[in-house]
Amino acid sequence: MNEIFEKVSQEFKNELLISIVPFWEKFSIDKEYGGYFSCIDRNGTIFDTDKFMWMQGRELWCWSYLYRTITPKEEWLKMASHGAEYIRKFGQAPNGDYYFSLDRQGRPLVKPYNIFSDCFCAAGLAEFGKISKEPWAVENAIKTWYRIQERQSNPKGIWNKQISDNRSIHLMNMPMIQLWLSQVFNGLIEDNILVPIIADSIRSILTLHINKEKKAVFEKVLFDGSPVQGMDGRLLSPGHALETLWFMLKAINDDGYSILSLIGISKDEAILIITEAMLWTIQRGWDLMYGGIYYYLDYEGFPPEKLEWDMKLWWVHAEALCAFLLAFKTTRNVEFLDWFEKIQDWTWNHFRDVEFGEWFGYLHRDGSPALLLKGGKWKGMFHIPRALIECMKICN
Question: What is the pTM of this model?
């Protein structure tokens, strides 16, 4: 077993430090106006200079996390500081929430309708505060974290289009992001505040979104866990399910007793439910004809609402690697190792760009690139380095 972990750790470290990090070091920094470019073509050409705040926060988190967990490289600290200052100067609206997007110079373009801008800027500043010891970064991160807790029941606020009186939907995205933020804010927020939030997040996913009878993890349910009528209620997102499941498994492994005592479930039972849900997800989500993991599926096999349902996306496969490697380490069940190796093989053979570095983000169903870009409005420096680092940590 040690040989397996050593091999994976070295492979992932090479991918991180030879292919991924150098690409963003070379092309993403805006030396003239601050912050980071995210819209980057295959060879490093910048094709849009607007800046999306959740991408700014994500990249800030990455540079800071690299510095703290891989090696305290001075250049990485400079990259982090560069993004942190841009966020500090331009990122927040007068009410303290983070804009969705700015122009290159820092002028706001889209109002702060999306709570995930706040989530990733808070995470980036929290991680930056750990390595820089800058009081303003930690203070801003904590203040934003508390603001997220205030907004979580209605994340979009006045921009929410749903009429909840007629159909009130419980989404899995907020419990999921709460689990990751709890990892980031460990040591900055007191345990007596964080642990109940982790427990509530895990409880809601276990009792509402994981359906043991149907053997599926549903994105959207009613607040009592019953199905939402129609396409919304049948929507499956394998990548999002696997990302959420490994967050849950990590939380239980890190501090299972205090969390699970609040939920009223044993550690063994929780691990069994989570890892079984991983297997349901990959067995349904794996493309038997071309390989790789579907982006979306309809539970009952009807035409999915999402037109891009059969595409293969970078982040889905990155999160799947974390899920199955962690499940294997936790259970020592070789079925999880088999899936990890199968996913890694497909990912390595289809997403990696051996000529220019980094990964393609969007593939057709057959695994050929649909777009050659390395970053855009939704893809940036985040899922790949986070997954590579996490898998290295699991191995070590």
Answer: 0.97
